[in-house]
Each structure stands twice: as C-alpha cells, then as structure tokens.
Design brief:
The chain has 223 residues and is an alpha/beta fold. Helices cover 48% and strands 13% of the residues. The longest helix has 15 residues.
C-alpha cells in the first residue's frame, strides 16, 4: 500500500486527488496539507511514501517545503504538481529534491502511474524532457555558490570511476539506459548497475538528481 500526503491550497484540488487515489486498491491518502508548513509538519509525523506537492501555496511554498522535507533525510518522495510543464518553478522543485513533476491537467492515469513510479524510486520525468527543462531554465535561476567548481574538484565526483563519470555525463545529456548500453557497447544490466552505483556514491536520490548533479558540476553544459 502506497501512502500519500496531498499538499495543495485549493480544497477542490485536494478533494479530487483524494477521490482518485482512494479509488485505487494500492493507495491510501494519509493526510491533506493546505500550505507548505503543514506539509513539512505532516511529513515528519506521518512519513508518507509520496507527497503530491503544489508549488504555489500561501506562506511556505512547495519548493521550500520540498527542500526541508528532503533535507530531513526521510524516505518520503515528492512529486511536484504545477500549472505549467516547463517553468522555472518546476526546475526549482526538482533541484530542491523532488523526484519528478506533473502538470495539474495531467490525465488521471498519468498521475497514478507517476505516484507508483516515484514510490518505487523511479523518476517521473523522462530524461529527454528533463534535459529540455534544465537547458531552458538553468540560466534563469540563482547560481548555487557551492557548485562553482570544476568537475575534478567537486567532492561528489571523487569516488566515481572513469566509466561511472562517463555514464553520469551522458545521463545528464538525457540518454536512457538503452541508449547508453547501445552507444557505449554495454549490457543494459551493466548500465543499470553503474547507474545504481553512481546514485549511491553521489548521494543522488534518483536519476533526476543525477542529471542536476551533472549540470552543477559542469560535466554537462546547457545547450
């Protein structure tokens, strides 16, 4: 059973999401938050598997709430829901630690499959879409001063082998596991092993965070 917390300042939106989720045999809604502060508090109390996080909420917004929840080190994964599919808020949410994002007008099946994917540790956003999102908005967001180093200087990359560094680079370029296997002449199972080791060594929660890491450490430059 996947437990879900709904964080949205619109009661009707929360009601609709609850009705959809509770119609599923493998999901249950454990709570509703009307703002970011409530989401942070309820996440700490309830430890849900997934939080559906709105971005624009009064007081503490969804981005800062996401940052605080992921910084706490809980297993909870966050799925950002936003009005626009390619806006700076979605990128900021991913950088804050969300495992993916969907638009609010997504089909019910998309939302359900997104929750299931996030709950199992997968990223909801396709690699190619992630690349376009990052390319579009990386220049419009404040620079993180902690990442102003070259790839060889960044401590997060220090433990990677040459092959793992190579694979992290192409992950950042939006390559899927199948593409990596084909182009680098590796078995797909080997690629999956490498990806798992990269995530573990760099402390990345999922593939999206690995893509952001590749950008932050300058392994990949925006197009």
């Amino acid at each position: 059973m996947t437990t879900v917390l709904i964080a949205d300042d619109q009661p009707l939106q929360r009601f609709g999401s609850r009705m959809l989720l509770e119609s599923q045999d493998d999901m249950t809604v454990v709570g509703e938050a009307a703002n970011g502060s409530e989401a942070v508090r309820m996440a700490a109390e309830l430890h849900p598997d997934v939080i559906l996080m709105d971005i624009r909420m009064p007081g503490l917004d969804g981005i800062e709430a996401t940052r605080r929840i992921t910084a706490a080190g809980d297993r909870t994964r966050i799925l950002i829901v936003t009005t626009f599919d390619l806006d700076e808020y979605a990128y900021a949410g991913l950088r804050a630690g969300a495992s993916g994002f969907l638009v609010k007008d997504a089909q019910p099946e998309e939302l359900l499959s997104g929750i299931r994917a996030v709950a199992t540790g997968d990223a909801v956003v396709a690699p190619s879409l992630t690349r376009r999102l990052l390319d579009a908005y990386v220049h419009h967001l404040p620079t993180d001063p902690t990442t102003e180093t070259t790839p060889h200087e960044d401590p997060r990359l220090a433990s990677l082998t040459d092959r793992e560094r190579e694979i992290l680079t192409v992950i950042g370029k939006g390559w899927t596991n199948t593409e990596i296997a084909t182009r680098l002449h590796l078995a797909e199972s080997t690629v999956k092993t490498h990806v798992g080791r990269i995530l573990a060594k760099t402390g990345s929660r999922d593939r999206i965070q690995a893509v952001i890491l590749a950008y932050d450490t300058k392994l990949v430059q925006p197009s």
